[in-house]
């Protein structure tokens, strides 16, 4: 669809976690690529949110297992006729590299927690207006450095989390690509689906000219969506076409 909006909704906790990480990483990239110091000032709150999310004690081990399972699945694909062997081999090598990086990685966020500069900012950043120059003169000094120097520091901080964030990005890519799009209609603004197999993610593309958005609820075996009017916030009663993509849950 042209001029449409993509909505994604996780149907299990693993995918929900991956999508939260992806959103924070994208926000960090946007801040990093900003041209002015204020964009880099805004980066710290998001960086600490990502650290808090990734510091779950079990995430590194869980993700390493998921990478191994993906590697086994992709290896099986190599025996299928008509597949692009070069592309699959590149994917195998990427998964192998990510698996090794996860095993060698320190506890997520530990390096950043030991950074005294970041620790000073972390103590103030959640206070309303707490990261002003008079509160954090060291931060003000850092913001006065060249953009190239600030980018170098930001990249070094993000690199400590890269084994996790890169592996999660690839897992989401595999989830999204193992699906196809279908045209569906929400009758009087409602749509219900019972799945034959456990689902991980649903995606909806909805044309913007309808002036509505979907409210989705459900789990890996069953979900429903209700179209809501963006102007009034009330339930839609029109028959509304949309595109639907469902990704199955992996072991």
Commentary on this structure:
By secondary structure, the protein is of the alpha+beta class. It has two domains: 4-11 and 180-248, YacF-like; 13-174, YacF-like (Orthogonal Bundle). 51% of the residues lie in helices and 21% in strands. It contains nine helices and seven strands. Helix 1 runs antiparallel to helix 2, helix 1 (13-32) crosses helix 9 and helix 3 (59-77) crosses helix 9. The mean pLDDT is 92.
Offer a few descriptive terms.
alpha+beta; 7 strands; YacF-like; 3-stranded antiparallel beta sheet; 51% helix; 9 helices; 21% strand; 251 residues; 2 domains
Gyration radius, rounded: 22 Å
Largest sheet: 4 strands, antiparallel
Number of domains: 2
CATH architecture of the largest domain: Orthogonal Bundle
Q: Count the E strands.
A: 7
- State the assembly state of the protein chains: single chain
User: Share of helix among residues?
Assistant: 40-55%
What structural class results from the helix and strand content?
Answer: alpha+beta
User: What is the helix tally?
Assistant: 9
Output the CATH topology of the largest domain: YacF-like
Measured between the Cα atoms of the first and last residue, the distance is: 32 Å
Spatial ordering of strands, largest sheet: 1-4-7-2
Give the overall average pLDDT.
Answer: 92
Indicate the low-confidence ranges by residue numbers: none
The general outline is globular
Main location: cytoplasm
InterPro entries: ZapD, ZapD_C, ZapD_sf
Subcellular location: Cytoplasm
Protein name: Cell division protein ZapD
């Amino acid at each position: 669809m042209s001029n449409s909006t993509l909505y994604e909704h996780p149907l299990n906790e693993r995918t929900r976690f991956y999508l939260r990480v992806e959103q924070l990483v994208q926000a960090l990239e946007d801040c990093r690529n900003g041209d002015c110091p204020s964009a880099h000032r805004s980066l710290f709150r998001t960086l600490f949110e990502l650290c808090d999310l990734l510091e779950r004690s079990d995430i590194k081990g869980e993700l390493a297992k998921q990478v191994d399972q993906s590697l086994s699945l992709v290896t099986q694909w190599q025996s299928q006729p008509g597949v692009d062997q070069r592309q699959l081999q590149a994917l195998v090598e990427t998964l192998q590299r990510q698996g090794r990086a996860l095993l060698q990685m320190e506890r997520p966020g530990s390096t950043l927690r030991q950074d005294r500069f970041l620790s000073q900012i972390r103590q103030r950043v959640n206070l309303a207006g707490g990261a002003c120059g008079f509160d954090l003169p060291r931060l003000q000094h850092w913001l006065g450095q060249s953009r190239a120097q600030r980018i170098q520091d930001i990249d070094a901080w993000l690199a400590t989390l890269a084994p996790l964030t890169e592996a999660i990005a690839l897992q989401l890519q595999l989830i999204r690509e193992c699906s196809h799009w279908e045209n569906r209609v929400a009758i009087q603004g409602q749509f219900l689906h019972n799945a034959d197999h456990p689902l991980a993610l649903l995606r909806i593309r909805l044309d913007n000219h309808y002036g509505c958005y979907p409210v989705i609820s459900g789990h890996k075996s069953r979900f429903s969506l209700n179209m809501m009017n963006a102007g009034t916030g009330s339930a839609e009663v029109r028959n509304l076409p949309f595109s639907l993509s469902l990704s199955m849950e992996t072991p």
